[in-house]
Here is the input.
Amino acid sequence: MTELLRATYRRLKSIPLFVFGTITHVSTSKPAVALTFDDGPDPVFTPRLLDILQQHHAKATFFMVGQAAERHPDLVKKAAAAGHAIGNHSWDHPSFPLLTGHERRAQIRACAKAIAPYAQQIFRPPYADQNLLSRLDALWLGYQVITYNATAMDWLDHDADWIKGRIMSRMQNGSIILFHDSLFRHGEDRYVDREPMLKAVDMLLNELSGRLSFMTVPELLRQGRPQRQYWHKQTDIDVLNGLKGQYGEVRRYSKVG
Ligand SMILES: [Zn+2]
Here is the structure.
């Protein structure tokens, strides 16, 4: 099946990318980037992140997990009221290629309900795992799929200097950058700490706010030409099984809808 999907993806290259492409960044000469924060909202770290962003007049995009958003509706509202964009990151963070089409659409719809009425029609697949069918489901529901072209690797226990250095070396005008204000499912306990991420974001904004605009993904998409890829990322079963609170058998995701 996987080979078939890969072959289909290759053939899709004759179809315009704007139909199936996944947006990774924007081609622009303007000094602007989009910071994105996945897996929240988190009752401890999201409010602190919102304070940091506000201090630097920076806007960002939060790809929220529906289950967390439902627990903390005040934080969804607060982030939106501060001018940040809210995107859909599924109901409870399964790897979409492992689900049926019905389950995938139920995941997106359940999250949409939890983040309404603040959300934009943008979706980021959990773990960035995506195959052709899951891409089509997002298209069917009217979502733009947004991944990234720079990652903070903040799901591991790197310190703030390391995270900042990594982003500085990878960032360019038009970049979409992946951070996490929470880890909905995580590996070892020491990875949960968001202090290094918060500190790294603060340092980045301190250094760059004067010469770089930090804006939401929808705003960034208007600054130039969105760049798209046939993004295919297979589920890594070993990674999933290494996550805490994961099910004995990875296919047994909770069903919603
Ligand atoms: Zn995630």
